[in-house]
Amino acid sequence: MNSPLPDRNSADRGRWLPLVATCLGTFLLLVYATIVTVALPRIAGDLHADFGALQWIVDVYTLALAGLLLGMGSLGDTLGRKRLYLLGLAVFTLATLACGTAPSAPLLIAARAAQGIAGAAMFATLLPLIGLTYSGRDRARAFAVWGAVAGAAAGVGNVAGGMLTQFLSWRWLFHGAVPLCLATLLLSWKVLAADARTPARVDWPGIAAFTVAATGVTFGFVRGGERGWGDPGTLVGFAVGAAALLVLVLVERASAHPMLPLALFRTPAFNGLLTASGTYYPAAFGFLPVLSLWLQHHAGLGAFATSLVLTAQPLAFFVTSALAGSALHRVPARWAIAGGCLLVGIGDLTLLGAQTGPSWPVLLPGLVLTGAGAGLVSPVLPATAMAAAPPAHSGVAAAAANGARQLGLALGIALLGTAYAAAGLSAVFLLAGALALLGALLTVLLGRPRRPAEPLRTAIRHRAPATGQDVRC
């Protein structure tokens, strides 16, 4: 008897299971960047957390992503990307469970830090794993689907956070995801292809110095807003951050395999892109935690209603990226990035309308403008960063741009939270607007890349091993 022919539809479905696994990991990773935002008042009440602790509950996750993204990319080359991704996902699952059971604010902050460390391991390996699995037209489709999932995660995080907090408990933000984490871990273990290890040395001193520098500076901003800028803890935080930054420069200069080659910073266009990355992201998203508190404390909204208001921003981001993404690559990249930064700045200043009274509708135009502006920048940023660097360092250049974006967000949350505590919501939007306009100006002034920017899809198609992930594209 002849064997039955294989089911072509079944084989085709199986071909996309690795994409399902990586998209589930992406969704989990990015949802937890936003899902706690609207739950902050409930967390404060249950755990007796002060404003500084609330800032760290949000900020420590982003800070871990920023501080470890580059280093985890190097570690993935040594351990193998599938192995590091699975390890990160396993730790992420345990950390998520720990967040849901945390009995105090310090333990919740520690569990969120573990989440962020594990998330960095996942984030540094997701796009390379997709690039290793698919080729040609399938790869383009895979990256398009991945980008859609990444863009939708922020909006889903806001809505899910509001619903679970209002109708169940903030602890279900974490408990509810544990089964999905376990299912994603099992699926990823079964369907993702193992990749070969590369005998590369990991720049442990560079990773440590960068992490300490980022943590010290962020701690200084949070502590300064809470205890005052002359507080000994504030001064120690800034001093440790500055000393670690100096150590980082010395270590990277002496290293044969630096995490971040210092030669990249000799290119004005690359420096401009780092500035844009580090300013537009906090200007667009750094005010969300304090705006959530304001909507619930002053505008009288519940957690779910607050989440619906904030979702206007990721929806605008998603629509703008989808509609304008391909057209953006037909204009000079610096103008697309500068234009997006300018739109974010205008949106921030539009949000000043909140000072007319505690009414949420007045926020919608500003949320839409900031989301649309960020949606113009994000699709072109990684490929443009690659084009601004020498070809040998294009992958690390894209990762550096994304690291600057995440670090900028961590510092922005701290800085804007400090402004809110000291001077109110108007100061937050004025400062955010200034950051965005600064990014637009420096992007234009620092000139074009040394070689023409590649179209985003072309750059992605040729950079499977790179770690230049895009957070919200």
Automatic annotation (TrEMBL):
<feature type="transmembrane region" description="Helical">
    <location>
        <begin position="428"/>
        <end position="447"/>
    </location>
</feature>
<feature type="transmembrane region" description="Helical">
    <location>
        <begin position="272"/>
        <end position="295"/>
    </location>
</feature>
<feature type="transmembrane region" description="Helical">
    <location>
        <begin position="360"/>
        <end position="383"/>
    </location>
</feature>
<feature type="transmembrane region" description="Helical">
    <location>
        <begin position="204"/>
        <end position="222"/>
    </location>
</feature>
<keyword id="KW-1133">Transmembrane helix</keyword>
<feature type="transmembrane region" description="Helical">
    <location>
        <begin position="142"/>
        <end position="160"/>
    </location>
</feature>
<feature type="transmembrane region" description="Helical">
    <location>
        <begin position="84"/>
        <end position="103"/>
    </location>
</feature>
<dbReference type="GO" id="GO:0022857">
    <property type="term" value="F:transmembrane transporter activity"/>
</dbReference>
<feature type="transmembrane region" description="Helical">
    <location>
        <begin position="16"/>
        <end position="41"/>
    </location>
</feature>
<keyword id="KW-0046">Antibiotic resistance</keyword>
<dbReference type="InterPro" id="IPR011701">
    <property type="entry name" value="MFS"/>
</dbReference>
<dbReference type="InterPro" id="IPR036259">
    <property type="entry name" value="MFS_trans_sf"/>
</dbReference>
<protein>
    <submittedName>
        <fullName>MFS transporter</fullName>
    </submittedName>
</protein>
<keyword id="KW-0812">Transmembrane</keyword>
<feature type="transmembrane region" description="Helical">
    <location>
        <begin position="172"/>
        <end position="192"/>
    </location>
</feature>
<dbReference type="GO" id="GO:0046677">
    <property type="term" value="P:response to antibiotic"/>
</dbReference>
<dbReference type="InterPro" id="IPR020846">
    <property type="entry name" value="MFS_dom"/>
</dbReference>
<feature type="transmembrane region" description="Helical">
    <location>
        <begin position="335"/>
        <end position="354"/>
    </location>
</feature>
<feature type="transmembrane region" description="Helical">
    <location>
        <begin position="234"/>
        <end position="251"/>
    </location>
</feature>
<dbReference type="Pfam" id="PF07690">
    <property type="entry name" value="MFS_1"/>
</dbReference>
<dbReference type="GO" id="GO:0005886">
    <property type="term" value="C:plasma membrane"/>
</dbReference>
<keyword id="KW-0472">Membrane</keyword>
<feature type="transmembrane region" description="Helical">
    <location>
        <begin position="301"/>
        <end position="323"/>
    </location>
</feature>
<feature type="transmembrane region" description="Helical">
    <location>
        <begin position="404"/>
        <end position="422"/>
    </location>
</feature>
<feature type="transmembrane region" description="Helical">
    <location>
        <begin position="109"/>
        <end position="130"/>
    </location>
</feature>
<feature type="domain" description="Major facilitator superfamily (MFS) profile">
    <location>
        <begin position="18"/>
        <end position="451"/>
    </location>
</feature>
<feature type="transmembrane region" description="Helical">
    <location>
        <begin position="53"/>
        <end position="72"/>
    </location>
</feature>
